[in-house]
Write the structure tokens for this entry.
Amino acid sequence: MSQIVTVVDYGRGNLYSISQALRHLGCEARITSDLAAIEAAERMILPGVGAFADGMEGLRARKLVGPLKAYCASGRPLLGICLGMQLLMDESEEFGTHPGLGIVPGRVTRLPQVAGYKVPHVGWSPLVPASPWKGTALADLGEKPFMYFVHSYAVAPSRPADRLAMTPYAEGEFCSVLKSANVSGCQFHPEKSAAPGLKILANFVRNLQESAR
């Protein structure tokens, strides 16, 4: 696999682990905050760790909000990881209400406080299909693959069709993978999720999410 994947650097991403995972797959990880490089990208990863408001401030400070919206509107594939997925939403309730990129309709809400369950949610948990996985970044993963999570908030897409996978938590479940046209996102860290996580990145690089159209 000889592919270039543009990884957006806005000061909040787990860039080293993602770049190492992509190199393991035979890809070139192009880490950048350069506007011209982002506008010219063929496939893009928006990573992220930390607080929502800080992430949006990092994007605004580098003048990346407009270019990211334009990129997604162009139909080219983007994968948001952890905070990177949350930033795709309309807004977040983390430490107040903060506007997001507004690329995928919905909100980011705190995981419920339930006796016997810790917040943040840290560890390995399964993915359960909410929509068919064929032709998506989750293709050929098998039944209920386990992924590695570290988070206190989760996305709540407004459109049920945007929910690709759910993960059981406490007395309910949260959306752990979304897909809206060419834009995908995962709450867990595929680069830290062993072979199943690498399979997701490989599927994304091969643009399998486009093959089902």
In short: The two ends are 22 Å apart (CA to CA). Residues 164 and 178 are 5 Å apart (CA to CA). The helical segments are 15-24, 35-40, 52-61, 65-73, 83-86, 194-205, 208-211. The domain at 4-211 is CATH 3.40.50.880 (Rossmann fold).
